[in-house]
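User: Fold this one for me? It's Carbohydrate ABC transporter ATP-binding protein, CUT1 family.
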Amino acid sequence: MARIELSRLAHSYRPNPSGPADYALKEFDLTWDDGGAYALLGPSGCGKTTLLNIISGLLAASHGRVLFDGEDVTRLPPEARNIAQVFQFPVVYDSMTVRDNLAFPLKNRGVPADEIDRRVKEMAEMLEMTADLHKKAQGLTADAKQKISLGRGLVRADVNAILFDEPLTVIDPHLKWLLRSQLKHLHRRFAHTMIYVTHDQTEALTFADKVVVMYEGEVVQVGTPEELFQRPAHTFVGYFIGSPGMNVLPCRVDGAQATVGEHVVRLRGGYRALPQGAKTEIGVRPEFVTLSRGEGLPIQVERVDDTGRFRVVKARLDGLAFNALIPEGAEIPADGVRASFDPQATNLYVDDHLWPAEGEA
Ligand SMILES: Nc1ncnc2c1ncn2[C@@H]1O[C@H](COP(=O)(O)OP(=O)(O)OP(=O)(O)O)[C@@H](O)[C@H]1O
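Assistant: Here's what I get for Carbohydrate ABC transporter ATP-binding protein, CUT1 family.
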């Protein structure tokens, strides 16, 4: 296992990049702690696979360095990096049995036969494939083949890190849930550094201790699921995490208050010296919105969906989509509805980035 550092890393697939749009990854520094369970989350095309392939050595970064426990591995090929990688689609040897497929990475590294036997049995049990050990991979379903791929990634004890690139895409929903909890269990047991790529927030939040969120080639936040919920560092994190996502409203800011349209919203602290001409917005999660006939911003309710524990109110505010989550039992006025926000949970964004109030870090 290793602590993985990416130093001033950037990548362009073009030979002569001339501007930010030419970069699949824009420059950043990032450290993955030894033994951490990370999810790498972001929409299609944001650079997740590019980043994973740079860590494993399948791709040479055009800029910056990769360090494992302080040692520069930037120029080392994949086989010298001791990384296990599991891809979206199965990578198995069809002509081999399940047992031989699982044993392959261990045989390659000269692990003694009795140790191979023990680890293969343990892995087959975990994957619920003990009865299939003697079968050729060829005749198995896509699900089963992908389970073997996972097993081949997890069977080695000595890896620096295990990288998963959307490994559960082809797996049916029930098994998906099962395998995800087994991965978590395995992480607790062996404390491998694990990086799990997904564009599914549920998958990311259930697997990881820390989530790295990417957007358009940038790492926009690294944080615990709670941090991503409470203080999204970028408006994209606010939209992407949570269901429904954070409300983002254009505003003007004056000290400790924002003006949205003609209405004043109290902020949790003072804001001065904001950059001239920058885009300013407040972000408030639907969970921190209260509806009443009294104070607040006028909204037009379009729909109320009852989920059991709370109701999702879909509305418009100054023509923009706006959502509120209202607990069961709390009143939703029939007309003249106004929305007010908890100031502690109202964040200010300047050009999409979270802006701290005076005195905040
Ligand atoms: N081999 C390549 N040559 C040129 N451009 C590439 C190559 N691979 C990826 N890209 C581009 O780099 C950007 C990042 O792609 P990448 O596959 O890393 O994203 P991703 O977040 O993994 O997406 P997905 O979730 O769809 O797999 C995209 O604009 C993509 O078109």
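One thing worth pointing out: Residues 13, 24, 42, 44-50, 199 surround adenosine-5'-triphosphate (CB under 6 Å).
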